[in-house]
Amino acid sequence: MKKITRKKLAVSVMVTIFLVFLIAGFGIAVRCKGFGSSEAAGWAQAIGSFGAIVGAVYIMNSQFRDATYRAKEARSTELGNLLKAVGSEISAFEKMLSVIQSDMTNNPSMVFSGRYQMVYPEILASFPIYEACALEIGKIENDVFRNEIVETYAEIRAFLAALNKNSTFAERVPMNEAPSGDVAVALAHLGPKLQRQLESLSVQLARLKVTIASTRDS
Fold it and tell me: Are 192 and 157 in contact (CB under 8 A)?
């Protein structure tokens, strides 16, 4: 059901009143001067002109509404495609983090000393979809949702930086030996930090995926 605003109601009343005035004038002219008189013809022409103006305004308004609707639908489709792509990238990182979390849980050094002695190849914080769609993500109207996407990618970037740093220290530990000195201190600091980051990211990624799915379906 369409909502009638005060402005629309006022315009409708004014148009109706003016139309009644014109019809009344035409009726009086016909009664007093006759149907074929110039006065009646003038009033009839005024009614026709007024009708043409009202019709033109109505057509323009309808075209504007249609254009607005099509633009909104196009934007909705673009947003849906964007969120689908971002959701795919998020899922890929979620799987990678799940593997790392499993490695960490089963790592003896992490379990007994809190030091994560695992060396990974350097993992670049590269997000092709996010980076390619950054401008479009910035246009998302929901501030909370937009910030959630940005913050999640920032957290992933920070985690990968910490993981790469941990790997550089773990690589310095000789085979079958316990770390010592600055390496031991660094690993003791980074291990719990990585664990906290992973736990936080797991919750954050799951929440973001739900938000993306609900926004796409709405």
Answer: no
Q: How do the pLDDT tens digits run along the chain, 218 residues long?
A: 455 677 777 777 787 887 777 777 777 777 787 777 877 777 778 778 877 887 887 788 888 788 777 877 777 788 788 888 888 999 988 899 899 999 999 999 999 999 999 999 998 888 999 988 888 888 888 899 999 999 999 999 999 999 999 999 999 998 878 889 999 999 999 999 999 999 999 999 989 988 888 887 66
Contacts 24+ apart (CB under 8 A), 107-115: 110/191, 110/195, 113/178, 113/188, 113/191, 114/188, 114/191, 114/192, 115/179, 115/184, 115/187, 115/188, 115/191
- The string of DSSP codes covering 58-107 is HHHHHHHHHHHHHHHHHHHHHHHHHHHHHHHHHHHHHHHHHHHHHHHHT-
pTM assigned to the model: 0.69
